[in-house]
TrEMBL record:
Subcellular location: Cell membrane
PROSITE patterns: COMPLEX1_20K
Main location: membrane
Subunit structure: NDH-1 is composed of 14 different subunits. Subunits NuoB, C, D, E, F, and G constitute the peripheral sector of the complex.
Needed cofactors: [4Fe-4S] cluster
EC main group: translocase
GO biological process: aerobic respiration; electron transport coupled proton transport
GO molecular function: 4 iron, 4 sulfur cluster binding; iron ion binding; NADH dehydrogenase (quinone) (non-electrogenic) activity; NADH dehydrogenase (ubiquinone) activity; quinone binding
Enzyme Commission number, as recorded: 7.1.1.-
Protein name (database record): NADH-quinone oxidoreductase subunit B
C-alpha cells in the first residue's frame, strides 16, 4: 500500500503546474473542432463543389459536419463559396452577424477570395471586405478535397486556440474589419492603368 502512495506522490511531482487547465483547454478545443456546423452559403459555381463535399464520396461527416444548417443561429462556420456581388454583401453580413460566437469563415474559390476574373463594379474584390476570413481556399473552382483540407486547417486553428482568449480574438477581428473598411475601395484603385 505504501508503494502505491509513493508512486502517486512521484506522479504528482512529475506533472507540470497548470495540468488541469491545459487539459481543459485541449478538451474544449477538441469538442469545438469536432462539432463545427456550416451554414448554407452557396453563391456561384463553387457551391456545387461545396455540396459535393457532403456526398458519400468525400464525406465531410467524418469531421462532424454532416449537416449544412439552413439557419445561421445553428451554425458556427460560414463557407463563402463563389463571387460576392454588391447586392449580396449586406445579406452575407447579416447572416454572419446572426451566427453565435465563436464563429469562423472559409473563403472558398478565387472569386470569394479576390474577386477572381470579375474585376468590375458589380463584384466585391474579396469577401474579407464584408466578413473577417479565417482560411482562404484558392482555386476556380476548388475541388472537394481542397475544401476538406481547408476544413482541416481550420480544425487545427480551432483546436489550438485557447478559449480564454476569445475576447482577444473578437478584438483582432474587429480591428481587421475596421482596417478593411478604411482601405481604398476597388473602384478608386488605379493600378497599372493610371
Amino acid at each position: 500500500m505504501a508503494e502505491i502512495g509513493g508512486r502517486r506522490e512521484q506522479m504528482e511531482n512529475d506533472l507540470p503546474n497548470g495540468f488541469a487547465i491545459t487539459s481543459m483547454e485541449r478538451l474544449v478545443g477538441l469538442a469545438r473542432k469536432a462539432s463545427v456546423w456550416p451554414v448554407t452559403m452557396g453563391l456561384a459555381c463553387c457551391a456545387i463543389e461545396m455540396m459535393s463535399a457532403g456526398t458519400p464520396r468525400y464525406d465531410i461527416s467524418r469531421f462532424g459536419m454532416e449537416v449544412f444548417r439552413a439557419s445561421p443561429r445553428h451554425a458556427d462556420l460560414m463557407i463563402v463559396s463563389g463571387r460576392v456581388a454588391h447586392k449580396m454583401a449586406p445579406i452575407i453580413r447579416n447572416v454572419y452577424d446572426s451566427m453565435p460566437e465563436p464563429k469562423w469563415v472559409i473563403s472558398m474559390g478565387a472569386c470569394a477570395s479576390t474577386g477572381g476574373m470579375f474585376n468590375n463594379y458589380a463584384v466585391i474584390q474579396g469577401c474579407d471586405h464584408v466578413v473577417p476570413v479565417d482560411v482562404y481556399l484558392p482555386g476556380c473552382p476548388p475541388r472537394p478535397e481542397a475544401l476538406i483540407n481547408a476544413i482541416l486547417v481550420l480544425h487545427d486553428q480551432i483546436h489550438y486556440q485557447e478559449p480564454l482568449t476569445e475576447k482577444r480574438r473578437r478584438e483582432v477581428a474587429r480591428l481587421a474589419e475596421q482596417a478593411a473598411l478604411e482601405a481604398t475601395p476597388t473602384h478608386m484603385q488605379k493600378g497599372l492603368l493610371a
